[in-house]
Amino acid sequence: MESDGLVVRTKVGRNQRIQITTAGLGQLTFMHHVLRRVFESPKDNLIIHGIVFTGLSEGSYYVGLEGYRKQFRAKLGFDPYPGTLNLRVKREDLNERRMLESFPSVYIEGFANEKRTYGPAKCFRAIVNNKVSSAIIVPIRAHYGEDVIELISPHHLRKQLKLKDGDVVTVKVLLQARGPSSQ
HEC states along the chain? Predict the structure, then answer.
């Protein structure tokens, strides 16, 4: 744990003092959430609040690739609008965002075309503002940190929900993934 930066050991004579680091506390908190899910009755869904922001405009490129689109249609049951809705997770919801990784997901396989290879992703079914079905997409090789989530939907979410940068959005993640494509 010391070599991983999770604890710091200080020797004073024959005594040792071991102190948990910020990184160690983060790992411990995450593990607590994972284990709590094992020992307590599971939730039916998870609520994450995020603030809309304009992304890098890469979502439309990746979501539009046929290697991904055919999997979205087959595994999620919809053909997504060519783009993503980007949300910066509110600070008080970062633990929920971390907890998301421990729940069942729909696995989207990577693929290759004549230009390059494209990595896999995980999707989590969700509902935005209690109105529009969508999915959180978490690329395995993401450009964003854990404080950002990207949503895909068959609808243009910004337009349908009349969203602009700075608006707060509620995402209800449906933790019971459906169908044989879940893992």
Answer: CCCCCCEEEEEECCEEEEEECHHHHHHHHHHHHHHHHHHCCCCCEEEEEEEEECCCCCHHHHHCCHHHHHHHHHHHCCCCCCCCEEEEECHHHHHHHHHHCCCCCEEECCEECCCCEECCEEEEEEEECCCEEEEEEEECCCCCCCCEEEEECCCCHHHHCCCCCCCEEEEEEECCCCCCCEC
